[in-house]
Amino acid sequence: MHLWDFFLRFATKVEIMKKNKVPAVVLSLAEQNLGKESLEVSFLGTRDAVSFYIAFLADSKTGFPFVITLDESGETEVFDGFFALELVSSFMED
């Protein structure tokens, strides 16, 4: 599966968490980095008690997604560029 197909899968299937179920702090960080227009924010998974979310523009064919992490204490981190792609790829199934 190509990485772009992976993004679109998150944007089109029922398994996506709707924006109103994404924690407000995650949605706020996504909006700060990408704006509100055509923004998609989806849950990727959890590792070591840290939740991972992917944020990207649904109508964009270029650029990097952002990965936002949220730990149990409410601390967040934002990743972009090639490292964000590596994080997203680590959640992909073959």
Topology:
Elements: H1 3-12, H2 24-34, E1 39-47, E2 50-57, E3 66-71, E4 76-79, H3 81-90
Antiparallel strand pairs: 1-2, 2-3, 3-4
Can you describe this structure?
The chain has 94 residues and is α+β, with helices and mostly antiparallel strands. The chain is 33% helix and 29% strand. It contains three helices and four strands. The protein has helices at 3-12, 24-34, 81-90, and strands at residues 39-47, 50-57, 66-71, 76-79. It has a four-stranded antiparallel sheet, with helices on both faces. Strand 3 and strand 4 form a beta hairpin.
Short account of what is shown:
With 94 residues, this protein is α+β, with helices and mostly antiparallel strands. The chain has helices at residues 3-12, 24-34, 81-90, and strands spanning 39-47, 50-57, 66-71, 76-79. β3 (66-71) and β4 form a beta hairpin.
Keywords:
94 residues, single chain, 4 strands, four-stranded antiparallel β-sheet, globular, 33% helix, alpha+beta
Largest sheet: 4 strands, antiparallel
The radius of gyration is 12 Å
Question: Could you tell me the strand content as a percent range?
Answer: 25-35%
Helix and strand element order: HHEEEEH
Distinct helical segment count: 3
Sheet with the most strands: spatial strand order = 1-2-3-4
